[in-house]
């Protein structure tokens, strides 16, 4: 009997612990967005097309980073989300948090890009060493494989994803997102 009780208690503790780890409240309150959790990271999918530097700044303002994909499991998860019924964005591309600087691709978290999922012929470095394609994005027509694109000019604005550490139990002191009310309504379906 005691063994059964201990087992039930263990299961409860595990389930309770899993539920307690969630996206921070201020993240789930961002307009035009959708959240999902994978491997102890909270991902915020923002349905608002902006230039790459604006996307980076929005993620930073919220206390997060832009999306980094550093292994195949994370790539598969992000792809599943982008193809999911809940998040079927009508967009051609979604920014990654990777930028070409000092002859290297780097994530906004400062780490060097090692895992990659470039589409065939990418990064194409348009105009060679005088590249204007210094920011990375996932392209829908290529099954969300990666392309390099101009970071912030003309019509090159896209949706983006931010990432955050999960809330730990007892760690939910209300934080107000400075940009939460500043999102533009771009006429797309509101996703929460
Ligand atoms: Ca390219």
UniProtKB/TrEMBL annotation:
Pfam families: Lectin_C (PF00059). CDD domains: CLECT. GO terms for molecular function: carbohydrate binding. InterPro entries: C-type_lectin-like (IPR001304), C-type_lectin-like/link_sf (IPR016186), C-type_lectin/snaclec_domain (IPR050111), CTDL_fold (IPR016187). Residues 173-192 are annotated as: Disordered. It comes from the Eukaryota. Keywords: Lectin, Signal. Residues 38-151 form the C-type lectin domain. Residues 1-20 form the signal peptide. This is C-type lectin. It comes from Onchidium reevesii. The lineage of its organism: Eukaryota, Metazoa, Spiralia, Lophotrochozoa, Mollusca.
